[in-house]
Amino acid sequence: MTLASQLLTWYYENARDLPWRQNNDAYKVWVSEIMLQQTRVEAVKNYYTRWMERFPTLDTLARSSEQEVLTYWQGLGYYSRARNLLLGVREVCARYDGKVPDNAAEILRLPGVGEYTAGAIASIAYNRPVPAVDGNVLRIFSRLFCIEDDITKQGTKRKIHGLIQNCMPKEQPGNFNQALMDLGSAICIPGHPRCSLCPLTKYCEAYAREVQDVLPVRPPRKQPLHVTLASGIVKNGESLLVRQRPSTGLLAKMWEFPSIELEKNSAPSAMLPALIKADLAQEIVLGQKLFHCIHTFSHRKWDITFFDCRWLDGGALPPFARWLPISEITSLPWAGPHLKAAAALFK
DNA sequence: AAACCGGGGAT
DNA sequence: ATCCCAGGTTT
């Protein structure tokens, strides 16, 4: 009995029933793999189903607008994933006649596709025997071979990639890779793995040495930078003043209420009207606080307060801003904290 | 190699 | 309060 056959036997009995496992269509595998990057299965399920109802084929997606695509990604995070996926399917239409290339090397060249995703698509959709090294796989193999190197280092990933090539079956490479995901999700979990349920304990060096709880090794994360912001809710009739964020950087191209980062100890009372006047050519008077929230990103923590603003007068808006009817709030892709405020204030 | 890029569920 | 998730791109 090999490690692979042991794992596959376990998988036949324990594979999760997931929406993107109904077939191995390359477009569907692609979408699911991009959505799943740094994102939990439970969070992806509903997004994936809604996505496939709206963009059922690669061609449908390729002909859709970036703004609509971002709206369907709203809330999933890492929005460059959606923009790159759109660029990717358009490239497949232009260069590959609308058919996803059937090998990892060509898939790897598509925007938003790295080593892991190329391996996942090639193995699951096209039965190519290539590894797909994600966080689950790094964790499982660091334990199987008792690897104490920092798993975030490139060299460690290369080492594990090589180990997988040695135990990867020629048949069912897609099931093998997906079995590792399910094992990592249900059994070989971070912290205290459920070794009593694991089909691979007889191959596991960490289990033999009883060090599974301290593997894998990775450096501690840096704490997010704290930023204070003020934002203005400007209402003109039944419309709200909104603007689109720049095309690069945090929450690129997402929409928000006009806002500014505050210097330490500065009052928003003067800053916010001045900003709205300078950037958006609107005259407002600052009112009371309407909503406050703290929103933590991976590398930044926003402390943002939304102020009621009385609209007095104004000229034409710049192209990146508009008056948005309250009834159309959900038709735009929003910066997360601003959607929280909109939902609380205009429900 | 290190920094950037979101959001939330589990512990 | 901390961890970390079916990672990729940019600097």
Throw out a few tags for this protein.
single chain; 347 residues; alpha+beta; Endonuclease III, domain 1; Nucleoside Triphosphate Pyrophosphohydrolase; 2 domains; 17% strand; DNA-binding
Report on this model:
By secondary structure, the chain is an alpha+beta fold. The chain folds into two domains: 3-214, Hypothetical protein, domain 2 (Endonuclease III, domain 1, Orthogonal Bundle); 225-346, Alpha-Beta Complex (Nucleoside Triphosphate Pyrophosphohydrolase). Helices cover 43% and strands 17% of the residues. The protein has 14 helices and seven strands. Strands 1, 2, 3, 4, 5, 6 and 7 form a seven-stranded mixed sheet that branches. A hairpin with a 2-residue loop joins strand 1 (225-236) and strand 2. Helix 8 packs across helix 11 (173-186). It binds a DNA duplex (11 and 11 nucleotides) through helix 2, helix 3, helix 6, helix 8 and helix 9.
Write down the domain tally: 2
CATH topology of the largest domain: Endonuclease III, domain 1
- The residue fraction in helices comes out at 40-55%
Biggest pleated-sheet summary? 7 strands, mixed
Q: How many runs of DSSP E, i.e. beta strands?
A: 7
What's the CATH first level of the largest domain?
A: Mainly Alpha
Overall spatial form:
elongated
Order of helices and strands: HHHHHHHHHHHHEEEEHEEEH
Mean pLDDT score: 97
Strand content: 15-25%
Radius of gyration: 24 Å
Query: Per CATH, which architecture of the largest domain?
Result: Orthogonal Bundle
